[in-house]
Amino acid sequence: MRYRLTFVIGLAVGYVLGTRAGRERYEQLKKSARQVAQNPAVRNTAETAAQQGRVFAGKAYHAVSDKVGDRVPESVAHRVRNLRERSAHNGGEDDWGTSNT
Q1: Considering the entire predicted model, what is its pTM?
Q2: Three-class SS string for 14-79?
Q3: Cβ-contact 92, 99 below 8 angstroms
Q4: Which of 1, 25, 42, 73 has its CA 20 to 30 A from that of 53?
């Protein structure tokens, strides 16, 4: 019985100390992540990657539409045309409010 009580007390103390250290470490990591995300170099790199992704997506769209354009149902083709027109009229902004530049 004495060993069980010692084990339970040790487990409780370890849990309390671990959760305190865990929370402090979590806050430390959160602060570091926020600093990295606000770094101008990181933000520029992320924007460049997003722009390149849009360029590659456009190229893929044209490659696919050239190969299967006449096989796509008219309802789908109509929807794509509407999305492209809406994008052109919105000044290059997508549904999330980010620019397409």
Answers
A1: 0.43
A2: HHHHHHHHHHHHHHHHHHHHHHHHCCHHHHHHHHHHHHHHHHHHHHHHHHHHHHHHHHCCHHHHHH
A3: yes
A4: 73
